[in-house]
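Hey, can you fold this one?
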Amino acid sequence: MTLQFQPGGAMTVTMNAKPYQGNYEVNGKVLTLSGSDTLSVTVDELTERRMTLGISSEKRMACDRQG
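Sure. Predicted structure:
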């Protein structure tokens, strides 16, 4: 899975070779992408250097935050 955050709240997610595009919103610890499909994940950790997402009860994903 890859995440690309863009200015103005736009985001592209590629998961299992399928791209999802839309706008993102963070509400508490839930990151939601809304567009043609809706995808929600839990933000487990957010620091200056990385973001860790709970994809399912068994999978987590760590993303380096690049400036």
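The first strand starts at residue 2 and ends at 6. Let me know if you want another pass with a different chain boundary.
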